[in-house]
Amino acid sequence: MTTAKSLELQAEGRWRMLSLLCLAVVLSFSTWFSANAIAPDLKHAWSLSESTAAWLTNGVQIGFVIGALSASFFNLPDLVRMNRLMAGSALLAALSNAAILLEPGPFGAVLCRMVTGFALAGVYPPALKLVSTWFISGRGLALAGVIGAITAGSSLPHLFRGMSSAIAWQYVVLLSSSATLIGAMVFLACTREGPYPFGKALFDPAQIGRVLKDRNLLLVNGGYLGHMWELYAMWAWLLAYLTAALDGGSGINSQASLLTFVAVASGVIGCFAGGLLSDRFGRTATTAGLMIVSGTCALLIGFVFDGPSWLLTLVVIVWGISIIGDSAQFSAAVTELADQKYVGTALSLQMGMGFALTIFMIWLMPHLAELLGGWRWTFMLLAVGPIFGAISMLILRGRPDAIRMAGGRR
């Protein structure tokens, strides 16, 4: 009979596989915020309003929700080899992102962004599932690595723009599409499933009612929604805030782009820290603590608008670390608390609700900035989410069933 120890021996090379998978994910997710990084350019070139420009980001969110739920409903990761599914999805993301070079106008660009989001839904969940086939011990750290790779990849377009502010915006699109194309090749040629088959995680709409009646899952989802209320709105509009803070919003600013890159990329530290803290102190304490820190940053960011620059930099980096560090823990909590008969539905529903909320928040922020006369105090609204989320997770911590999480550490 095969033992867990012998299986570990069969998984030799798992760290190499994790490294290759994370590399491909970083490259592929450079298309997620590619339009957001060049939003100032597109607003000038296409005469876009701030709210219209928001749909260049929201298109990705909408496409991702549709793609993630569709892939789960039809169980694509079990019908198509995961490395092939991710490679094909990354290729589609590269092509749809590159289509912006044809300058299709606002409506066409939003459609391209929707296809990009739809395609990336074929990378994100399968990457998490594939890495789980290589790890039993150390799985939490491996999952944190993938989430960190997604975070790093999402920040890349800001690095591209910061390094090429003196040249045309088309180069940012070209660089992100090229990176994603390379990512597709890495997925296809260098990644494969490991020796630990992962159970099916189907989305069954008929089970939604059971998920919604589970009080433990309601509290977990309350924490997750608080997290998502803040996360993508901050990622999407931090460049606009920093551009306004550093030069009054008068145009393209390489310093603002580079600081946005640093802030978002620093979330990689948060992902690994969140995994380690969760193993040490429990999921509820870790998620609540990180949300308290990120919510505090949302409240403080307006006060450092005028500098000093070192303090502004410090706040946005701490925010970038804390805002994403708890992300993986909400999914882990669902797998530990949900009835295994509907864990797939619970995970899909959580992701669907979370990303649907980001669509509203990304749309709302420029309208609020216009109402307030600028970006300075706009981010204070984002503190509402992590405050609500932290309360939800602390309530969950006091429930008897919380002992099932993180090996009894709640």
From TrEMBL:
| Keyword set, alphabetical order | Cell membrane, Membrane, Transmembrane, Transmembrane helix
Q: Which residues form the Major facilitator superfamily (MFS) profile domain?
A: 17-401
Q: Which residues form the signal peptide?
A: none
Please, which domain of life does this record's source organism belong to? Bacteria
- Localization of this protein: Cell membrane
Question: Which PROSITE patterns does this UniProt record tie to the protein?
Answer: MFS
- Which Pfam families does this entry report, sorted A to Z? MFS_1
Q: Which residues cross the membrane?
A: 53-73, 85-102, 108-128, 140-160, 166-190, 217-238, 258-277, 284-305, 311-330, 342-365, 377-396
What does the record say about its membrane topology?
Multi-pass membrane protein
Protein's UniProt name: MFS transporter
Organism (species): Neorhizobium petrolearium
